[in-house]
Design goal:
With 379 residues, this protein is an alpha+beta fold. The chain contains eleven helices and ten strands. Helices cover 52% and strands 15% of the residues. Bound molecules: acetoacetyl-coenzyme A. Its EC number is 1.3.8.10.
Length: 379
């Protein structure tokens, strides 16, 4: 693995950093308070190529590598973890899945507007009774000849209320277990497709999380992704890459909290000196810096392996497992270093602490990552 970033990668990192400072930081506290989706900012992210970063330019993407994606995600998440998850889902779950597995016709129709940021997408796998146990899908898509008839409920869908296109995983033949699952592209506005109320969340409150209700929705045959029965393998393959996105989001949350804590520790005085001169504080910062660097290396490793076409189930899971733990630990300590100030909203660290928790839950809980890693190393 080459640790020297190229000129182009450094430029992308700087562009994302500038964008986050200038466009995401203003209003981030209010968007968190009001659960307000960053509509204008996401539009600009699309114009900058941040919503289809790794997609071939012939399908509207920016044609960049996955390390650039990690760098940009970290910068965006440092300032606004909600905008970062919108970016992660659109890039890694929706665009990457379509680019790799969709038909040419589907790519032209759906991938191009999604990768160029004209619209955003969502990925609907989780259900009220099927989160970690993803093969237990209750949503059904019955083969009716010319079309499939979709019925069921999806839960906790990121971009659920703002997406135009949804990748929906559903059971087509329960007898066949995971080989009887398919993935479909469903358009917002189709008859029988209803979007449930917005979830009132602990963190990433600027992102838009809804349940989706399908009541006899007709899906044209041409909107199935891949061969019949490919849906579960599709979801697993897509989630492997998605975990790099969430690991990078977690990395950004951690490094954002660390930078704020370091700055504070260098200026805040207690017992006649800046608090960084107290070993109790300095050692916390030393641990944070070490863990963040290790998390970044795991993200780079998984991203480099992805671009080399290697199996990233293990490296993606390791990056997500570790970076999300670092996000949680670092943000808790950042609040602690800030003392009473850390507990109020204007210092940002309490928001980052709330935002961190979800990175241990979505796109596979930490426990699921350990299943993936342990099965891989046992092979
Ligand atoms: N990569 C590629 N393929 C995989 C895989 C992986 N990481 N894990 C499993 N598979 C494949 C297996 O090879 C097998 O395929 P074949 O039969 O063709 O060989 C098939 O999937 C079934 O595998 P298992 O028998 O191992 O399946 P299982 O029932 O034991 O479950 C699991 C495996 C890893 C636990 C899986 O269910 C899982 O990953 N669960 C977590 C789901 C998840 O991440 N949900 C998050 C929701 S999406 C979200 O959060 C989005 C958002 O909005 C932010």
């Amino acid at each position: 693995m080459d640790f020297n970033l190229s000129e182009e990668q450094l430029m992308i990192q700087q562009a994302a950093r500038d964008f986050a400072q200038n466009e995401l930081l203003p209003g981030v506290i209010e968007r968190d308070r009001d659960q307000k989706f960053p509509t204008e900012q996401v539009k600009k992210m699309g114009e900058m190529g941040l919503l289809g970063m790794m997609v071939d330019p012939k399908y509207g993407g920016a044609g960049m590598d996955s390390v650039s994606y990690v760098l940009a995600m970290e910068e965006i998440a440092k300032i606004d973890a909600s905008a970062a998850v919108v970016m992660s889902v659109n890039n890694s779950l929706v665009c990457a899945g379509l680019e790799k597995f969709a038909s040419e016709e589907q790519k032209v129709k759906y991938l191009t507007p999604l990768a160029s940021g004209q619209v955003i997408g969502a990925f609907a796998l989780s259900e009220p009774e099927a989160g970690s146990d993803a093969t237990s899908q209750k949503t059904t898509a019955e083969d009716k000849g010319d079309y499939y008839l979709l019925n069921g409920i999806k839960n906790w869908i990121t971009n659920g209320g703002t997406a135009s296109y949804y990748i929906v995983i559903a059971q087509t033949d329960p007898e066949k277990k995971h080989k009887g699952i398919n993935a479909f592209i469903v358009e917002r506005g189709w008859e029988g497709f209803e979007i449930g109320p917005k979830e009132d969340k602990l963190g990433i409150r600027g992102s838009d999380t809804h349940s989706l209700i399908f009541n006899n929705v007709k899906i044209p045959k041409g909107n199935r992704i891949g061969e019949d029965g490919f849906g579960f393998n599709f979801a697993m393959a897509v989630l492997n890459g998605g975990r790099i996105g969430i690991a990078s989001q977690a990395l950004g949350i951690a490094s954002g909290a660390y930078e704020l804590a370091l700055k504070y520790a260098k200026t805040r005085k207690a017992f006649k000196t800046e608090i960084i001169n107290h070993q109790a504080i300095a050692f916390k910062l030393a641990d944070m810096a070490t863990q963040i660097t290790a998390a970044r290396m795991l993200c780079f490793k998984a991203a480099t392996e992805k671009d080399a076409g290697k199996d990233i189930s293990e490296s993606g899971a390791m990056a997500k497992l570790y970076a999300s733990q670092v996000a949680m630990d670092t943000t808790i300590e950042a609040v602690q270093i800030h003392g009473g100030y850390g507990y109020v909203k204007e210092y940002h660290v309490e928001r980052l602490m709330r935002d961190a928790k979800i990175t241990q839950i979505y796109e596979g809980t930490s426990e699921i990552q350990k299943i993936v890693i342990s099965r891989s190393i046992a092979k």
